[in-house]
Protein: Serine racemase
Organism: Ceratitis capitata
Amino acid sequence: MDDDIVDIHCDPKNPREIKFEDITTADLLLMDEVLKTPCTRAMNCIEYDMDLFFKKEFLQPTGSFQSRGARHALRLLSDEKKRRGVITASTGNHALAISYQGYELNIPVTVVVPTSTAASKIEKCRSYKAHVIIEGRDIGESRIVALVLARERRLEFINGSDHTHIIAANGTIAFEILKQVPKADAIVVPVGGGGLLAGIAKALKTVSPQTQVIGVELEKCPSFQRAMANESPVYTPPNSSLAEGLLVPKVGYNAFATAAVLLDKLVVVREAWVALAMLRLLLEEECVVEGAGAVGLAAVLSGQLNEFKKKRVVVLLSGSNTDAAAYGRALERGMAVERRLLREDHDVCGAITLFEKLEKLDLNVHQIMSECVWLPSAYKMEMVARSYFLISEDLGSILFPASLTVRLGPHPNLFFSQHWRGIGYSKALRVQLTNMGVAKQRKKGTCQLLSFSALKTQTDEVVKEEKELQDPRTSKIQERNHMETVRDNQKATPKNVQDVGAIEETPKPVHVAMKPKKFLALNRKLTAKKRSK
């Protein structure tokens, strides 16, 4: 980034430490402007072995604590800046808060979001009349775009994690917690850009210095941890995560200067614990919380805060803005971590035995997934006529009787085995028997056809027969022939195809490879002989 493209409120060379007076001023100005969210005791304190409380900031109008900072920062703008409008960069929550508060205060808002931002957050911003620009692979690149636009269009840039007014407003949360949970031993705070941590730490250590401040960030983007090791904010490459709100590659300079000296402990958690925390909050507290908002409970579940056993701990639930699909995947992952979901790999024939065992244990099958074989695009399936299915291939074609439903893909019933490989088709074409009653037999984990006749013809012969079948003048003849074939098959089919005797009486197919013309002639002779009888 060019040296002249900088945020005047966040000077790397001269960072500003937030003062306690800034927070008290914000608390007075926001007294009747934002919601004072509840802080309730956890329903399962016995399991956690803590007197655990949840500060529910996700109940703010825009679904996150960012409403406080957005309201405060917009309120303090001059009339000229309000008229021109503001611009910001965000992964979603700050963009939502600025868009909502700008709509309430009649201030034009432009937000720049990364390409990975959930579509639901983008649509919400637009519903508040904000101009949304989707640019940048992460929040760092989006911030550069926003700074360039701010200079070109003379807009006020508001940094969601490092603006001094934003940090001061975040500190008002600590005042509410101390009133709601007196003598708290620790407050657990999510850490992304550091603005939330800095505001709470400054207010808390001034009013209640004995209360510890615990920061929690993701293992996939430990930007604050690296800043502590380097004694200055440094760039940390972010990776995709369930908690996208914490994927800030570089913490704010003002936030770091304020929080670094006040932080008691910094915890890094893995994604699996975040997913489990989201699941626990839904099942036990009936709270839908996004990954970034659930990292505090994830730290408790991971056992990294065991020194606070039997003590009073407040976990900040910072937001609930999550994509429905991503939230569903996170819950499934949490169930897998807690061993509520188990994976078992079985072949088709072993699945029945597995289901019988699960039934005896009163267990439910959540989902059945089959391994798909992706066939080349040259394969296609089309209906030729009422009595035939045709499968076309580059090198030739196969014409199947109407008694079989042919599918290109996995099917749990049976599939063509060795005798099909003998005539040059190594692809596993899988079929499902219909009402023909063709006998089948299981052998060595596979299902082989014991009675089946098929015609392998040249491509030109198949095309010729296809045209004849589609000719309306021959439709009645084809229908009559089809009905005769069905009656003959019903007479020849055993009453119970599962009967062992019926299987033994059914002749086995010829496994020897034949040339197409001889194979065609043989089947015609067999068909003619059968009709004469």
In short: The first strand starts at residue 39 and ends at 41. The longest helix spans residues 475-492. Residues 372-463, 493-515 have pLDDT under 50 and may be disordered. Residues 39-59+166-337 form a domain with the Rossmann fold fold (CATH 3.40.50.1100).
